[in-house]
Amino acid sequence: MCGIVGYVGDRQAQEVLIEGLSRLEYRGYDSAGVCIADAGGRMRIKKSKGRLAVVADMLKASPIPGNTGIGHTRWATHGEPSDENSHPHKSRRVAIVHNGIIENHRALREKLVKKGYGFLSQTDTEVAAHLIDYYYSGDPLEALTKAANALEGSFALAVMFDSKPGEIYAVRSQSPLVIGLGEGENFIASDIPAVLKYTREYLLPASGQIAKVTKDSVEVFGFDGESAEAQKIHVDWDTEAAEKGGFDHFMLKEISEEPRALGDTLGPRVTGGKVRHEIFKLTDREIRGLRKIHIVACGTAMHAGMIGKKLIEAWSRVPTDVDIASEYRYRNPILSADDLVILISQSGETADTLAALRLAKSRGAYTLAVVNVVGSSIAREADDVLYTYAGPEIAVASTKAYSVQLLAMVMVALRIADAKKTLPPEEIAGTINSLQTLPELVREQTQRSGEIKEIAKGLEKTRNMFYIGRGMDYALALEGALKIKEISYIHSEAYAAGELKHGTISLIEQGSPVVAIATVSDILDKTAANIREVASRGAKVTLICREKDVGRFDPCDSVITLPDVPDLLIPIVAITPLQLLAYHAAVLRGCDVDKPRNLAKSVTVE
């Protein structure tokens, strides 16, 4: 998400920080800032909403001399993009920058206010700054270990103390962090590209480690304060490869980030076997009074909405429609004050979705935005907003953003069911327990790239292919087919498997590739019959199903197995192999995976 750079050495820190942050601009950001200390420990901050160039111009006009500093580019997760919410954040004796999400920031904020700390921002980062200051009595390591153990969530911090000039401290809990090793200088960064100009030697602190960094040394400790070791690596990447984390394309890197994105989106929203009520503002009474729910979105987000419809109706029994945003306002939808309209958009700037939002509000419906970009137009104009924490997506084809949209739909559906008492508490708790296993299960799917590449080899010369499924599998089939279209340029269509005999099966011929998704437990036999129908006409079938169900199907040309996950949650696991299949097909066909022709990341015009 956010970009971190730190420097200690003999150079002027501001030059290194701006250079490093510029190397992280590909990640996307909404504000930037630096904190630089002089030899006496005096720390001065320059920061601003907007582009890094704004801060660079500030430093040109009014340089900050000093050889130690930390810098940051922010992708907002708590608090809208603003000067006040920009990093670095400073407490009395401490300055920090942060990448990640602190889940218990509200409780810590209340505690610190009672201790006399005042807050200037809406961020979880300022909470961490004050907490470290609260524990600080002259020993940085002691303060950082106490704070790190009190913080919950995923976070990487770069920290400076005014009484410790020439020192930077790095704290890592899950979020990425590297330490660049130089001669008479050392670096901290969230990503290798930030400091690749200066060194190719790095330490990789493990989650749960703290590093004390000076210009001549790096010492590593555990969160228990005991000495520890960090892995040392040498990289030979060029800058472009480094931006991709060693992956060949941003799309593949972003697929690999799905487990982290799922964990970040889920963690702050569940507690005690329930979804937190504050994930949106409607009270239990208002939720019980809902007449109807409308889900409105475009493209990939609309496919997530189709899954959302199934979840909401299954768990809460509230009638739910899904509409393509570009069609919604032209069909004169029937809306009332007792309706909830959910708008899904990765960017929060999708023109058709924004227009649908304005129509819904004009007719008195309550609007909830599910978006990935804090402060975006849809987020600002909706009555309520549920942010997903995918972080920036560079590839045009959406992958990790779709996964967390599915997760958001699960949490919305569970919250509604809890308020309406349509699911018993123990079933909700059991579902949340299953949700918490998904990041690791998805991680296992991301590691099957080689296996799925072999299946994709059969698509190199393909001109047409088909995806089939029933129920939620049909929604997954639509997204799988869209991914193939977007990046490999194979003409692909998704069909509800039960509709094959109503015309579509006439298109099946010898060798036609068919991806058959079969995860809906109570209709597996029906889907098996549909698979048999296309196979008997010469289709080359790739089956996607749970490992335990493979025996219920006739032998297929290839099989991608899934773990035993509940039906209503399995789309979050099943989508990853479909994304990988599209990715490898595109690579094998020589396509520009990250920038497919004629497409844009965000569609901001009709």
Walk me through the structure:
This protein has an 8-stranded antiparallel β-sheet, covered by helices on one side. Strands 5-6-7-8-12-13 form a 6-stranded antiparallel β-sheet, with helices on one face. 35% of the residues lie in helices and 23% in strands. α14 (400-420) runs antiparallel to α20 (570-588), α17 crosses α20 (570-588) and α18 runs parallel beside α20 (570-588). The chain has 606 residues and is of the alpha/beta class. It contains 20 helices and 26 strands. The two termini are 29 Å apart. The longest helix has 21 residues, at 400-420. A hairpin with a 4-residue loop joins β12 (209-213) and β13.
